[in-house]
Amino acid sequence: MRINFFIIFLFFLSILSFLLIYHRLDNSLSINKPSFFYFLIPVTFFILSIVSLFLSKKNLFFLSYTLIVITFISYSVEGFLKFIIYPDINKVRKTYFEKNNYDIRNKFEIFDEIEKKLDKTISVPPQIFLSKDDKKILPLSGLSNKMTIICNESGYFSSYFSDRYGFNNNNKIYDEDEIFSIFIGDSFTNGYCVNTQNNLISNLQSKNFFKEKNILNLGYGGNGPLLSYATLREYLNKNKNTKYVFWLYYEPNDLIELTKEIKDSILKKYLKNLSFSQNLILKQKEVDFIINEKIQNEKIQFNQNKIVSTNKLTAFLSLDETRRYIFKLTNSPIKKNKEIIDLFSIIVKNLKNFSNKENFELIFIYLPGKKLNEGSLYYKDIISLINKEKVKLIDLSSSNFYKKNIFYPKYGEHFNQKGYEELSIKIHNELSQM
Known about the structure:
The chain is of the alpha/beta class. The protein has helices at residues 5-26, 40-51, 57-85, 89-99, 111-115, 187-190, 200-204, 225-235, 254-261, 267-272, 284-303, 310-317, 320-330, 338-358, 379-388, 417-432, and strands at residues 120-122, 147-149, 159-161, 178-184, 215-217, 241-250, 361-367, 392-395. A five-stranded parallel sheet has the order 5-4-6-7-8, sandwiched between helices. It has a three-stranded mixed sheet with strand order 1-2-3.
């Protein structure tokens, strides 16, 4: 029995691959249950490291040579798929922007310029503060009373002036006796990548159903079902008459966001205790301080070149694109995450009960993604749960408008001006038929 460098290397690979899988399980950007085949890699490396102890020099050389060839081919294929067939959309967009003389900077690259103007800031989604750790406050909005820079998908940085609680509204809405409707959801609700006058809420205000009515926008980028639910619980003014609450559900990533949200220590309390509140309306100064501190820390990391995308490196080492391509070719069945469906069901029930208690009508808007995605596999589950709780439904999956390129920037994930306008028309048409 001999121990040489190759045997130690195999054992190291078994540990490394296991840690990679553990990292993916804890930080997965997938809804579905990971396949048990993932664990074959570390197990195989471990078994080979044991077997190698008893191999002759000749067989050991053959095994090492074979593994080197397989590894080289695997990562060559991964590199080809990742950089040639499915290139990084951010790099492609940057090249396109450069050719068209668009602004190619990211938010931190323009932050020094923003800081000089005291009334400006950058958008910081609440999901950035999610963690398992105990904390005093979980912000559910942005900085208050600031010109807030959101994103750049069309060659310019879109922005809005935030209200007293950090949302995309005019402060006057809080002085009204009645709030006709409230919208909760993610970046599509917030109005990402277009200016205020072109977002969903502004377009809806010109439609007959909403005309001359107040619409409170409580949407924020990255919000999944649990963050949206918690936000409504915190910012619904129970002393004002609210007639409707519209929940805009985005198929591609809402359940993915939920897998991260349920790990947060404070968000869990909104599910376990129906009377729980952080009383954020009374703590905006503290919320502003936490967000400002986060921005400064991120700025320091950016300036020191410490912001590294570990997810991209992990994805490459895990051969994500290769495995995805093999699953696509073989049409391998995907095991659904039953726990996430059950969790979503609890949120729907709680929201429905909350609507009954506060006397508003809950309307669920199902918005599919432009491309086929993991979330689409759960379509029937989501619709079934909504119908089961007798929540009114606007199902936009029957319309194909969301697939048309004219409603998106050339290299963007959010709607452009035409897209938000079309979305408002579809929602209004569905409301007119109810």
